[in-house]
Each structure stands twice: as C-alpha cells, then as structure tokens.
Amino acid sequence: MAKKENLRFSSRLIHDGSSPDPVTGAHATPIYQTSTFVFPSAEAGGSRFAGEEDGYIYTRLGNPTTRALEEKMAALEKGDAALAFSSGMAAISAVLINLVKSGDHILCSKTLYGCTYGLLQLLNQKFNVEYSLVDMSDREQIEKAVQPNTRVIYVESPTNPTMELADLEMVAEIAGKQDARVVVDNTFMTPYLQRPLELGADIVVHSATKYIGGHGDVVAGIAVGPQDIIDEIRVTTQKDVGGILGPFEAFLLIRGLKTLAVRMDRHCENAQEVAQYLAGHPRVKNVYYPGLPDFPQHDLARKQMDQFGAVLSFEIEGGLEAGKNVMNHVKMARLAVSLGDVDTLIQHPASMTHSIVPREEREKMGITDGLIRLSVGIEDIRDIIEDLEQALSYAG
Ligand code: LCS
User: 3 pLDDT band (50/70/90 cuts)?
Assistant: First the structure.
C-alpha cells in the first residue's frame, strides 16, 4: 500500500489533514463549538498573544475544527498554508486587501463573478485601487495591459459564467517579470481538477460554498498560498476585518471534501452529456463548455484541467423571453443561483449573478441577455436531459 504521503488524490481527500482526536479517539473531526479557549495560566495567555507559545485563544484567531479544514485544503492545493473564511467573497476581499494599497493596479480576467467585480469597484472608488479587465487568453493583450503599478493578476479560469480560460502558466510567467502576484479563483475546478499553484500561481481562492461543500448547505471561502502571505492575512485582514468561518461550517466542508472526487467525476460526466445534448438542440444557438471539441480553448482545457467541470452556459433562439420560458418550466432542476450543488441549478446571469455589472461591461464580458447558466448536478443523467427537453419545448 502507498505510504500516507504518497496516497493518490481521491484517498488524500479522505485522509489528508485528518487523524483521530488525540484526547478521545473520535474518528470524525470534532466540532469545537466554542468562541474562546481557557488559558492554563495568566502567563500562558500572555505568551499565546505574544506568539511565543502555541495554543488557541479565541475562535476569530483560530479554532481546531477550522484549522483541520485549512490543513486539508493546503495539502490538496499543494500550498504551504490555508485560511478559511465566512464566504468566498470574504476570502477574496481579505486576499486583495492584503496584496494591494492605494495607487496599485489589479489586472483581471475580462469576465468575473458579479460580486468580485463589485469588490473591484469598491476598492477603486473608496481606496483608489485601479483595475482593468483583459482577455486572459491572449498573451499580447495581457502584456500590454500590465502596468508598472500592477501588483496582482486576478484570474478566474474558467470564468463565471462564460467559461473562458486563462493559460495559467503563461499568466504566471508574465506576472513574474513584474513582481505581481497571481491569484486564481479555482471555484469551478476544485483542486481535484486543477491545481493552479503547481502551474505557477501564488494564491488560490475558492468559494467553498460550491463543490468543496458540495451539498448547497454552507457559505464559505478558502485562500491557499505561501506561508508568509497566509500568516500575514491571518493576523491582519482576517483577524481585523473578521470574516472567519465557524467550526460547524468547517466540519461540513471537511465532510464534503471526502466525497469530492466521486461527486466531481459524476458532475463532469453529466455536464459533458448535457453540453453535447444542448449543442445538438435545434433551439440552442451557442454552448459554452470547455469539454466540447469545438470550444475555442479546448486544447488549453485538456492541458491544464483534469476534466472540464460541470458549469456551462448557453444561448437559445428567441433571447431573453425564450430563456425565461425555459427557466420557468424546469421541473427537477432548481431555478436558483449558486453552483456546485448536487442538484442541477439553472439561472440567468444578466438579471441575477451578474446584475451588479453595468450592461455595457456585461456585454463586453459576453454576458448577453439571452445567456442561461446551468450547474449540472449529479442526478441521473436521463432525468436531467428529460427535464431540459421538456423545458426547452416552451422556448417558443
Ligand atoms: N468566486 C466565484 C467564481 C463564484 O462563483 C462565487 C459565487 C464567488 C467567488 C463568491 O463566493 P461566495 O461568497 O458566494 O461563497 N458565485 C455565485 C454564483 O455564481 N451564484 O451565486 C453565487
């Protein structure tokens, strides 16, 4: 049998960062549902605050259940260390606030999750942090867009919801020449399908609300990266802004991670079939899914992703009105935002997840009014396709 450190990924999902509780032998990671920790003496309390002695102090500064999740995520993403947050946005904002100051520039993927775009606007308007959006598939455009004050290149790959990819090795190489940090939002992929740190990125962020939790019952975020940056975030933007994850949510994520490989395999297998089905449907104009052979970046997807994920977007003939008819007639799928849930979810980016982005910007991102996003679940594929088939019959 492979030694524990040589285990393959799906075994590591179960075993990394988990060992029986040293006090009770509890097999599952206990939920340390406590806000504070009692010091053995006044001297010990002072030493812990001074960083001279290990030991927990207060849950905003660290908690054993949350720490177990952080260790597991750091191991899976192949980073030195990780931090868990109360949402994906808490993770992203803590990382960006840590890496930039007034006058710095963030270069971003052309398309981004709506609230990430909102955060950039906020940083710009309140703190004079500049940002620009660029097509991350094009080396020339990226090189042109880099500025002397660019401190971060922030990438979603694939992007939400248009599924464009960035060549992560190329982006890391460009950033290296500029002393900029590469931050990759790996939410759509998870470390099972893509490990940006191995491709040269500095920090990975996640909305763990999605596939990491996997069951649509937690809102959470994770950041993974080098020890020095993670330590700094732990004692600054995480501690003092305070968006930490509670121990119960950390427990749910540890539990979710154990089944990540089997869930992702099924998600991806189903999504490939749905993409092919939609691509052949007479009412469907375009399907955006990296697993389709005619997807413009299919070769890059094969190079840097182990499978193609389970989110896809499509446009149907008849635009928004036809799209609303489809969304209003799904029977098994749920008309809801979020993604990465075991259920199939359908939503309309222009009026929902990306409504914060002004129309003109949205159109540059490729988010047309007729675009529909599907997060393909792990139900029986026949039920997913039958449901879409009957809903699409209402397209008009
Ligand atoms: N990054 C990506 C790529 C996301 O899709 C989301 C949320 C976030 C970050 C933020 O994570 P949260 O704070 O919600 O945990 N995406 C959502 C979506 O597409 N529908 O609803 C939420």
Answer: low
Average pLDDT over residues 217-224: 98
Is 88 close to ligand 1, i.e. is its CB under 6 Å away? yes
Let me know if the fold of 4-30+62-257 is the same as that of 260-392: no
Instruction: Assign a CATH topology to domain 260-392.
Output: Aspartate Aminotransferase, domain 1 (3.90.1150)
**Looking at ligand 1, which atom is closest to the CA of residue 221?**
15
pLDDT in tens, 259-280: 999 999 999 999 999 999 999 9
> What are the boundaries of each domain within the chain?
4-30+62-257, 260-392
Task: Using alpha carbons, select from 384, 373, 388, 392 the residue that is nearest to residue 163.
Answer: 373
- The yes-or-no verdict on residue 2 having pLDDT over 70 is no
Q: For ligand 1, say whether the CB of 85 is within 6 Å of any of its atoms.
A: no
- Interval between CA 113 and ligand 1 midpoint (Å): 6
Q: Which residues are catalytic?
A: 60, 113, 185, 210
Tokens of 22: 């040293």
The pTM assigned to this predicted structure is 0.97
Q: Is 185 in the pocket of ligand 1 (CB under 6 A)?
A: yes
DSSP H/E element including 141? helix 139-145
Q: Tell me how far apart the alpha carbons of residues 125 and 103 are, in angstroms, rounded to a whole number.
A: 12
- Is the CB of 339 inside a 6 Å radius of any atom of ligand 1? yes
Fold held by 4-30+62-257: Aspartate Aminotransferase; domain 2 (3.40.640)
